[in-house]
Amino acid sequence: MATYSLGSFDFLRLNSFAGYDGAPMLPRTHCEMVQRLNVKGTGFVIGQRTGMLFPMQSFIDLANDAQAALLIANYHLAVNTDPLTIVWRDINYFSLYGVKYMVVDVTDIRSCRLYSATGGLNPPSLSCLSAIWHLMPVEVER
Amino acid sequence: MPTTTIETEKSTFTVQAPAVTIYTADVLDDDEFEEVKYLRLNKLRITAAPDIDTCEMQYEFGNILRPGKAKIEKFTPLSITDKFVKVVIAAAVDDEDEIVWYGKIKAVSSRAFGGGSDGKTSCGIQSIIAFGLLILLDEVQVDKSYVDDGDDDTIEIKEALPFNLDPGGAFPVSGNRSLSKIDGCYVFSKEPRTPEKWSALTAVEYLLKHFSPLDSDDAVANVWEIYATTEDKLSLQWYEISLNPELRTVKQVIDALIDRRRGMSYRVEFHASDGKIWLRPFSFASENVTLPSGQKLYANGSQRRLNFEQAVDVTEAIISDMATARYHRVRAYGEFMTSTFTVPLYGDGTANDMFEKDWSSAEEAAYIAGASADAEYASQDDTTKQRWNALARNSDKFKNVFSRWRVRSDWSQFIQALHDPEADTYNVAPIIGEPDEDIDPSGLLESEPLWLRGLNILRHLPLRDRYDYSGTKISDGTFAGAYSSSEQPGYLPLMVYARVEGDEDVVRDDEGALIESPARFDHVERLSYTAFDSVSGFNWSCSVGIPDTIAGLEINAHPAQMIAKAEWAGASPAATPESQDPTASNGIDWKNIFVTLTMEIPKRVQSVAEIESPASGAPVNELAIHVPRARVDYVLPYTTVRIENGIPIASTSGGTIQDDRERVADIARAAAEWYGADRKTLQLTFKQVRDLFRVGWLITDIGATFGTSIKTPITAIEYTFPEGQAAPTTKIETAFAALDFT
Q1: Residue B696 in contact with residue B265, Cβ under 8 Å?
Q2: C-beta neighbour count of B442 within 10 angstroms
Q3: Which of B323, B319, B321 is nearest to B614 (CA)?
Q4: How many CA atoms lie within 13 A of B6 on its CB side?
Q5: Is the pLDDT of residue B615 over 70?
Q6: How far B78 CA sits from the closest chain A CA (Å)?
Q7: Residue of A42, A45, A82 lying closest to B17 (CB–CB)
Q8: Is residue B486 predicted with pLDDT exceeding 80?
Q9: Are A30 and B70 a contacting pair at CB < 8 A?
Q10: How far apart are CA B201 and CA B62, in angstroms?
């Protein structure tokens, strides 16, 4: 099974709504287009590489409701702390791209009970937790 | 003047937004600067004087994840107030230089956002303002002067002496600069008044040499000097300066000396290789302008043509044509013209008599009677009667008797020339026309209208002490005396003189040359020192003056009756001691008094130069320029200019002592030429930060498509780095100079 994690948080699934195939977004070089009335052509002023805020949805199974409640609290503690490393489909984005992700906010945290599940990371997987992470990619020195 | 064309990007282009690095140091030494990370530049505005460059920066403090860092770190506010700052904007394009600016941080304000969840970590944003190096000169006050000690050195006096100003005398005499340089620059002369005048160039050199900011050891922190081309230095010498630097800062004085109204301004640059700060003047003229003095305002040596017709990165281009700077004609005017002439205090009873008594017959009779009308007067002894009469005559109600004369309200404005064999009549206010027109005072021509009741008689004549104005020297122009470079003669006061011996007049030949003078004359203020053949000295004194409330003359003898010998002899004066009796103690008759005086003609010396005609029926827009100290001082023929050995010496030809009509006309013409040229201002903004411009460069035009000339220099360049990811911009502004040619 592929590995998905955000810092110390492991997930069964972690997908963005943008980016190719749900992958986390990377910083990109900013560019401003310049045009002028009555003059042909377009200019481009190339700026620095910067990230854009983007959301990712996570899903994880948990042993029980109590563990879910504990994890919810930890999710909130991760907001506005040091940037975290994402591993997505076994790709460590810090090792490969030199990018970590600042957790700007975490919303839409939903937990539910499971009566039957297999293949989870936290057997007997009687609970599950999903959340929307609002992340900002930042380049850091390796 | 050859020009270079500046172009920004045409059609499609790609350029890198530049990186900015900011450094600070305690001293202005390029080797001492250290980088301050995360200090962000918002705006940098580089300007010409009198404005000062400004630089706005920003710094966030608190718990911050800085770009490129893996962990949130705690950053405390910067403590950099009063440090020097160096801003380096990297070159955006190959082959261009980076933009480097130096300044001093003068204001740091913090927006605090609280102490954090632990109460220990403050966070907020610091707004940091730095000013250009010119601010250093605005912190030094001119509160002393360096004076030539005559031994190739200077003495320091704790007073800021004025440049080219002498408050003493009726007409200010200018010039107080040393004859030669001492330690590289001129200083104030040892004598307070000399012919050597300061120019803007020499005055600025003096200020930069002696008033540079000092460090804590009283050593010069950084050397300031003028760095200019020969033409720019000459352009700082075409105009006269006269100002008092007392209680002003060095920057304020330099701004007054290098004034845009003189077609010049300057910018300040730091020369990092030797640590010097340069003051670099530049001209507002696009072509050489020949000035009234014969000198030139040289054209700007850095002229550029701007071509942005196809530039895609221009976001704004505003060309302004100011109607407030457009004139149809120029009128230059100086001081009121003056006329100097000699008149008798008592004429021939015609309309040509200038003066009349300013007391009545009743006042005169009462004065002569003294206190004799008092009921107890008759019973007093002679000594008491004399004392009572003297007290009565000293009363304020008699202060005009035998003392004040006023200009007649029906005076014809003509005088009979004294001591003139032809006895010609002269017009005291002849028409003074164009520079090439002679002034004709003959009584046959019309005159300038005078307001007799408001006539302004001056306290001094335009004649200098120890100059020889006799004969034809005024018309020949050979009246100036020789004097040492260390002094200048003052102006003669109002001249009042009397015939003290004999009754005849002086005798002259047909050409006006003196043949003989049977009578003797002397100044009424000096009679106590006079001894002639039949007069063995005077034991009374006399003073002269101009009343403050009427157009007239005051002659205050002590006592007043000493100049009323004829009236005293013809009346029966009440008891008077012999020393106060004019018939017994060498009194004189005021009818034998003559006055050489100077009056203002209520018309200024002026000239008008036309530029263009307005539309039919539209009002004329006229520029008026005041030319200080531009004068026409006219002396009528046969004006007495001095008394020598008891003989009145006259200028037989008369003429102008000072005639600035041509200078005023030149100023009007030069101003018409300047204001007649087509000039506009330009504001141009484009989306890059490029090292394409310098403050002081003159933009000639902006391309063939617009078909308009600019001809104004860049006075400000502003680099803006917006928040977020918007591209930075460059904005240039040019400005127009309203030239003052005086």
Answers
A1: yes
A2: 12
A3: B323
A4: 18
A5: yes
A6: 23
A7: A45
A8: no
A9: no
A10: 51
